[in-house]
Amino acid sequence: MLDIDEMGQDEIRELLHKVGYGHLGFIHEGKPCVMPMHYYLKDSDIYLFTTVGMKTHDMDAAPDICLQVEEIHSPKHWRSAIVMGRAKHVTEQPEIDLVMALVKQRDATLSPAINRTWTDSWGRAEVISIYRIDRGEMSGRTTDGVSSR
Q1: Which end of the chain has fewer surrounding CB within 10 Å, N or C?
Q2: What is the largest CA-CA distance in the chain?
Q3: H or E stretch at 121
């Protein structure tokens, strides 16, 4: 039998700092929707960097979201965390600058894209948007905990 343990808050924060991507859950047209999403951490703040579109429209309309993050080594050795909170659109320039520095630091391949607006294959303008998750609660589980050994 697989022994699954609760993760402490420090373990959850360490996992969030280590991974940097997960699955964002939100409401789209009244139904649950989940999409892969990179995120960026600064201290205890979690930021989402995306382009204006379905996700941003839905988070503005219904800001209650969750972010699920996992690290899987094998079917018997994994960690998973869920952050429940509210998406807050970041509009103040100092905070935007902070997040853009985090994005460039973590993923330098985005540097050309963050300096311009472009048009996708459907002719829509791709405009950058940043959200901060104002957290309500975090929880996590692991198969690598003390009672799992």
Answers
A1: N
A2: 55
A3: none
Domain residue limits, the chain = 5-142
Strands 64-74 and 21-28: antiparallel
Q: How many residues does the chain have?
A: 149
Determine the Cα–Cα distance for residues 149 and 56; give it in Å rounded to an integer: 43
The CB density around residue 18, as the number of other CB atoms within 10 Å, is 11
Asked if 79 and 141 touch (Cβ cutoff 8 Å), the reply is yes
pLDDT along the chain (149 residues), means of 10: 91 94 96 94 88 92 97 94 96 90 75 48 66 92 77
Model-level pTM?
Answer: 0.84
Residue listed under structure tokens 């659109």: 89
Under 8 Å between Cβ of 98 and 42: yes
